[in-house]
Amino acid sequence: MRPALALNLGLRFVLELGALAALGWWGSQVGGNTALHVVLAIAAPLAAAVVWGLFVAPKARVKVSEEARLAIELAVFLVATAALAAAWRIWPAIGLGGIAVANSAFVRLLGDVPGSDVPGSDPGTRPV
């Protein structure tokens, strides 16, 4: 794997964790009582993690086209960005959303997206 791709995939992982943290933060801020805060702080990132694991992760259970995979990936980041903005964390929201979009583009431009159906995405199928 090329160093630039490895760095971008590492950044992508950090962004995924940031999205989960953003959703947890949002969940802890909304609602009228402590019980709802706790439930939403757990349920929101859990829902995003399930969607990511089913459709976007390198070993996703459900294989979808690369276009659908990108759309789901960006939707998760969009929801996390909106959650941060709704919790009045505007600059972190702008940062998360902007970096996530740029990272998604760079990972695809560099090629070999792990788990995708793009030819050459599996190192074992690459022509020698």
Q: SSE order, as H and E?
A: HHHH
The rough form would be described as globular
The N- to C-terminal Cα distance equals 14 Å
Rg of Cα set: 16 Å
Q: How many beta strands in the DSSP annotation?
A: 0
The biggest beta sheet reads: none
Q: Number of helical runs?
A: 4
Q: Can you give the mean pLDDT?
A: 86
Instruction: State which percent range the strand residues make up.
Output: under 5%
What would you say this structure looks like, in words?
The chain is 71% helix and 0% strand. It is an all-alpha fold. It has one domain. α1 packs antiparallel against α2, α1 crosses α3 and α3 packs antiparallel against α4. The two termini are 14 Å apart.
How would you describe this structure in keywords?
single chain; 128 residues; mainly alpha; 4 helices; disordered C terminus
Topology, pairings included?
Layout: H1 3-29, H2 34-55, H3 66-86, H4 90-110
What's a quick, concise take on this entry?
The chain has 128 residues and is mainly α.
